[in-house]
């Protein structure tokens, strides 16, 4: 565990019973492909009486409070050297699967099953094989939790740091607790960025998206890399926010991020895929694009 995390209690590190609780919550906000969260649906969502909702709210309070511009730089410096661990790809899935839901080990599918269901749904629709691989790899960054990162620094909707927050980000009222909120330079429309600078120049809140993008960036086509890097940036791909930071390249890539999102959100099925049957296909696919080992 890294020193700076010692100030957090166990409850602050892991407010959710499992990482899946965040994704289940996203599904309630965006119940259908192409839905955006209208103010009415947001209100209904808030009023829905559910104890799980309180833990999600607490999760976002922590996320919005602690994901500062400096926090993101510190995590980038710490993780983007990829000097923590090196594993063969298939061992990495086993490593990821150590993330289990303590509260309900029987009902939730493990991480690998979610990845496989996502990739199989993409394959069934006849998309290119690199997109199937995106489906298989897209949540590999959740291993950050196994390196001791708090849940709110691994999952959660991502958003740009160093500029004004969109009020379309879930629970925007919690941003007032973020120390960046009192730094005027970070609270203008463009903040530390320039108009139309392109998302590649924008620092996003830290989480599994950026980490897996950096891990995969030499191995997949650009469209696939956008899917990885921005799949949790709901304020952009669902709500259409932050137009003023985009360049033409981002605008042309948005359709790919949107194409991927329903496979992530709506492919969950209680029936686990038949891995024995699928294994030869995936072994070939991984060998075609990825090196023998992955660096973490
Ligand atoms: Fe994800
Ligand atoms: Fe996912």
From TrEMBL:
Gene Ontology BP terms: inositol catabolic process
Locations listed in the record: Cytoplasm
Lineage top rank: taxon: Bacteria
GO molecular function terms listed in the Swiss-Prot or TrEMBL record: inositol oxygenase activity; iron ion binding
A Pfam entry, by short name: MIOX
Listed cofactors: Fe cation
Keyword Transmembrane among record annotations: no
UniProt keywords, alphabetically: Cytoplasm, Iron, Metal-binding, Oxidoreductase
Main location: cytoplasm
Signal peptide (from-to): none
Protein name: Inositol oxygenase
Species per Swiss-Prot/TrEMBL record: Daejeonella lutea
């Amino acid at each position: 565990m890294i020193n700076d995390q010692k100030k957090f209690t166990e409850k602050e590190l892991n407010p959710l019973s499992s990482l899946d609780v965040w994704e289940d919550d996203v599904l309630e906000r965006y119940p259908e492909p192409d839905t955006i969260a209208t103010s009415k649906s947001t209100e209904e969502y808030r009023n829905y009486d559910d104890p799980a909702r309180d833990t999600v709210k607490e999760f976002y309070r922590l996320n919005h409070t602690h994901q500062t511009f400096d926090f993101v730089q510190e995590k980038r410096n710490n993780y983007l050297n990829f000097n923590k661990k090196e594993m063969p790809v298939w061992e990495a899935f086993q490593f990821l699967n150590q993330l289990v839901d303590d509260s309900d080990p029987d009902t939730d599918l493990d991480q690998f099953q979610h990845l496989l269901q996502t990739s199989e749904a993409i394959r069934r629709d006849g998309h290119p094989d690199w997109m199937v691989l995106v489906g298989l790899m897209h949540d590999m960054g959740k291993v950050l939790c196994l390196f001791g990162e708090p849940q709110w620094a691994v999952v959660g909707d991502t958003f740009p740091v160093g500029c004004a927050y969109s009020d379309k980000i879930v629970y925007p009222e919690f941003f007032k607790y973020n120390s960046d909120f009192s730094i005027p330079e970070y609270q203008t429309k463009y903040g530390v960025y320039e108009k139309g600078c392109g998302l590649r120049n924008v620092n996003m809140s830290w989480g599994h998206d950026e980490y897996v993008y950096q891990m995969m960036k030499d191995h997949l086509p650009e469209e696939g890399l956008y899917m990885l890097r921005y799949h949790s940036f709901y304020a952009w791909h669902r709500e259409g926010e932050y137009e003023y930071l985009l360049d033409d390249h981002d605008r042309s890539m948005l359709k790919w991020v949107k194409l991927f999102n329903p496979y992530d959100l709506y492919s969950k099925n209680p029936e686990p895929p038949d891995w024995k049957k699928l294994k030869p296909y995936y072994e070939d696919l991984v060998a075609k694009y990825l090196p023998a080992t992955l660096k973490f």
